[in-house]
Design brief:
heterodimer, A: mainly alpha, 7 helices, 0% strand, B: mainly alpha, 87% helix
């Protein structure tokens, strides 16, 4: 059956921002899903800040000058990891915030920390790299994999 | 401090890279969404492809909101990697 205006119910994602900010107390969806409405409102406020945070983080990791002989792989993976962590914090905050309002603070804190630390690193010209033992471990694994690949390709010929 | 012209050059490179990634991802996602909408609408009578295009167009702003952060990330990565190789 096609939805008529009488039985049409908009979900939280289909609501206007002002409807989320000033929920109608007579709206059954608003009453049933008050927590989700609150989480959705905060998600919409934080979503435009993510591109800014991602740009700052990426610049902090990859913006430092390097010679052509220096590898950028570690910085690349570091940037991807930092961005994934920040977005993960955002998802956890939105999902958890529907039940516990205090959890809604985590995306704001994560974004503020990411932007502040990123800007600090950029201003100081800090080259962000993983600790030596992690870099060595990753290098040894990649060398082993490339050696095996070279061997298997050699056997194939 | 970097000069005005160099700053503008970096800014344009960054915006071009982000814009390219964003436009590419948007076109790809809109096409996939259009095909999915066509599949769903195939069982419904009197639905023209133009109507499906309109529905897809209405859904695009929602999709853009989701992909913009990741387009910025991928675009920024490619831009900074290219710039650090050239300089």
């Amino acid at each position: 059956m096609a939805a008529t205006p009488q039985n049409l119910r908009y979900t939280t994602r289909e609501r206007y921002l002002w409807e989320l900010y000033h929920p109608d107390p007579n709206d059954p969806v608003m009453v049933e899903q008050a927590g989700q409405m609150r989480a959705e409102l905060h998600d919409r406020i934080t979503t435009p800040l993510y591109p800014l945070a991602f740009a700052v983080l990426t610049f902090a990791y990859l913006g430092a000058p390097r010679t052509t002989r220096q590898s950028r792989a570690m910085s690349l993976f570091g940037a991807i990891g930092a961005v994934a962590l920040l977005r993960g914090i955002g998802f956890v905050g939105t999902l958890g915030g529907a039940h516990t309002p205090a959890v809604l603070l985590t995306p704001y804190l994560g974004l503020t920390a990411a932007i502040a630390l990123g800007l600090w690193g950029i201003a100081r010209g800090v080259i962000i790299e993983p600790p030596a033992f992690i870099a060595d471990a990753i290098n040894s694994v990649s060398e082993r994999i490339s050696a095996r690949l070279a061997n298997s390709l050699g056997d194939g010929r | 401090m970097i000069g005005k012209r160099l700053g503008r050059y970096f800014g344009i490179q960054f915006l071009l890279a982000v814009g390219t990634v964003f436009a590419g991802a948007l076109v790809l996602i809109a096409m996939v969404d259009f095909i999915e909408m066509l599949r769903r609408a195939s069982g419904v009578r009197d639905v023209s492809p133009l109507f499906v295009v309109r529905i897809t167009a209405f859904r695009v702003p929602f999709i853009t909101e989701r992909i913009l952060p990741f387009a910025v990330m991928v675009g920024a990565m490619s831009c900074f990697l290219n710039l650090s190789r050239r300089l």
